[in-house]
Amino acid sequence: MRMPADHRIGWVAAVDSEKLTIELDEATTGLVKGGHAGVLPVGSINSYVTVPAGPSALVAVVTAIRVHEDPPAGSDFYAAAESATRRLEAVIVGRFEDGRYEQGVATYPPLYAPVSSATPEEIRRIFAPRPGRPVIAIGEAVVAPGVNVSLDANLFLARHSAILGSTGSGKSCTVTAIIEKLLEQDIPYANIVIFDSNGEYASAFAKEIPRGVRANTIVLGPETGEGSALFVPHWFMDNEDHLALFRAGEGAQAPLLQRAVADARIGPAGERDRLTLLLHVRRVCDDARGILNNADARKPQANLDALLGGLETTLERLADENAGEAGELWHELSEIASSYGHVGIDPNSWDPLSLAHRTNMGQLLADLDSATERVLDQLGLGKEAIASDFDAPRYYSLTELLERHLPYRIAIESAVEPRIRGYAATLLMRISRLLADARYDFMTRVPEHPDALARFLRLALGIDPLRDCDDESRPPWADEYERRKMSDEPHHSLTIIDLSLIASDVLENVTALVGRLILDFVQRVRPRGSVPVLIVLEEAHRYIPANEQTRARSLFERIAREGRKFGLGLMVASQRPSELARTVLAQCGTLIAHRTVNPDDQDLIRHATPFANRELLRQLPGLGTQHAIVLGEATPVPSYVRIRDVIQPPMGKDPDFIAEWKEPPPEDLIEEIAQDWEGLTPVFSGQSEKNGSLRESPRGEGEPPETENDIPF
Prior knowledge:
Blueprint (H helix, E strand, L loop, with lengths): L7 E9 L2 E6 L7 E4 L2 E4 L6 E6 L2 E12 L9 H7 L2 E12 L2 E4 L10 E4 L2 H8 L7 E7 L6 E5 H6 L2 E4 L6 H13 L8 E5 L4 H4 L5 H6 L2 E3 L18 H8 L6 H12 L4 H24 L7 H22 L2 H15 L16 H24 L19 H17 L5 H17 L4 H4 L7 H10 L16 H7 L9 E5 L5 H21 L8 E5 L13 H16 L1 E7 L7 H5 L3 E4 L5 H9 L19 E6 L6 E5 L13 H5 L7 H11 L34
Parallel strand pairs: 12-17, 12-18, 13-15, 13-16, 14-15, 16-17
Antiparallel strand pairs: 1-2, 1-9, 2-7, 3-4, 5-6, 5-9, 6-7, 7-8, 10-11, 10-20, 18-19, 19-20
C-alpha cells in the first residue's frame, strides 16, 4: 500500500513481534510535519503511524522516542541534535484493509518499509464505530481533539469491564458517563444494578437530573428495613450462604446446620405447624427419658406427671380439633398418651421410681417415639429420610431453626456421638446473637409474604415489582418503593443498592446473596440471555479481595467466568487493583485505566492486559484527572482518552476544607447526629467491631477443636 510522500516520517529499523522500531528521516526535524492533510504530530506519545505490509497498512501507536547515538565529544547542543539519530518505538494495534480499519495483525512489514504519520482522516477511520452497532461515546482522543472514542456497547457489556485508578482520578465519573450513554440508547427495559458501597450514586441519578429520570432510578438503602426498601430475606440463602454467614465448622456444625435448615424449609405453613407440634412431642419424651435415667432426681413422679399429663391433654385437644390425615395422627398419639394413666405415677409422692414405673414409662415413650418417627420420615425429617432441597429459597423462621430444628438434629446425632452437643454450642450461640442484633433485622426478621422471591427479583431488576399485588400480599418494602420511585412507569432501568451503612461483618454476605440470586435467575431464563443484566461493583476490592477466599469473591469469580453466556455482565471499579482477585480482572475484556500511583497496582494492571498493550500502561502514574488509557475488545484501538464531562457527578469529590472551615457548623449538628445515631445504631457499620460483631475465628471462641480429635464426619 503506497503512502503519500508528504506523510512519511521515517522507516522501519526493527520488527519485534508486536513492536516496531522506527528511525526518523533527517528531513523530519521537528515534532510536527506539515502536508496537504494538515499539521501532523511526529514522535508524540500515543500518536498513530501507518506502515505498508503487503496488501494492507499496519497501524501502530507510538510509545517512546529516543536518541539512538551519543553526540560526538566536544560538539555543541545544536550540532549534537543535528547529527543524532532519532528513533520511535511503536506497538502494532491493527491494520487498514480495503480502506477499513481492522484489529490485529495479518502480515508484518519488511525492514526499511516507509512509515507515515496517520492523517486526521485515517484517525477518524480508526475510531469510527462499526455500522449498525450501538456504541458508548466515552470521550475524545487526546492526540486527536474532536475525534470521539466509543466503545462497542454489546462487547463492553458482555465481556465484562474494569475501571481502575487511584482515588480522585475520575473512576466514579467514568462509571456514570458510561451508564448515562447507555441510557441514551432508548433502552427503557435495561437491567443495571449498582452495588454502591460508599453511597455516591444516588445523587448522580436523582430525579432532578435527566439521566435519573431517564432511568427511573430506584435506590435501596442506605438504611435497612423499614424506611429504606432494603430487605434481603435470610431464607433466600443457599447452603453455602448459610455456612458463610453462621461460620459453621466443617466437622460437626456444617452437617447439623445443613440438615436443620432443610428441616425448617419443609412444606407449606400447615406442614410446618404439624412439624412444630411433633417436635414438641419429641422434646417432652426426651425430657421424660432424662428423668427416668436420673436415679437421684427430686420428686420424679411429680415431674413426670407434669410432663406427660400436659402432653396427654394437648394431644386430646388436637385430636378433637383436626380431621383427615392430620387428625388420624393426633388420634393415634392421643391413644398412646392415654395409657399414661396405667403407668401408676402418683404426682403427690416423693418416692423414687419403681421398676414397674420405669418399665411402663419406657414402653409409653417408645410407642410415642415410634409413631412420631414414622410421620417425621413421611415429612422427610427422620433419621434416614431424604431431606428437602437444601438450597430451595423457601421461607423458614430463624427463631424456629434455633429453638426447634437444630436442637432436634443435635439430639438425634448426640445419641450416637455425645460430643456433638459441645461442638454445636457455639453455632447455636452465633445464631442467637445474630437474631438479637437489630442491625441484621433486614435479613433475619423479614416477615413472610407471598411471592417473596419473585417480587424481590422484580425489584432488583426493575420489572414492575408490585404487579398483581393486593393489600394482603404487599411485601414489607412496598410503601417505601412507591414513595421512592420517580414516575408512574412500572419499570425502572437502574437499581442502586446503597450498602454504605450495612454492618461490615455481613456486607460481603449481602452482596454475595444478591449477586447469586441474579446469577441463578439468568441461568434459568429461556431463551438463554434474553434478560441481560449488568452488575456494577463500586470499590470492588471490598467484595472480591485478592488475599481472602470469601463467599462474595467465589460468587463474582463465577460470574466473571460464566456470566457472559447467560447475559450477565460485570463492571468492576476499584482504586486498589492489587487487592482485587486476579481471576475477575483477567476475565475483563475492556480496561479503562486512570492514574495509578501504587507500583503494585500498576504491575497488576499491566499483567492483566495483552502483552502488546503493556507499553502504553507505563503512562499510568502521570495521567491527569479525567484522563484514561482505554483498551480491550470493546474499543477498536488502544487509546489515550479524555473522559467526557459529567453533569452532577457522584458524591466522590474532595471536600473544600478551607471553605468549610471558614464558617461554623450548624449549632445543633452534633446533637442531631448523635440522637439519630443512637436511634439507628443497628445500621451503622462502625459499631460492629466495638459492640460485638460476628467476626471471630471460623469456629468461634471456645469451640472444641475440629481437627485431630474431631468426630469422623
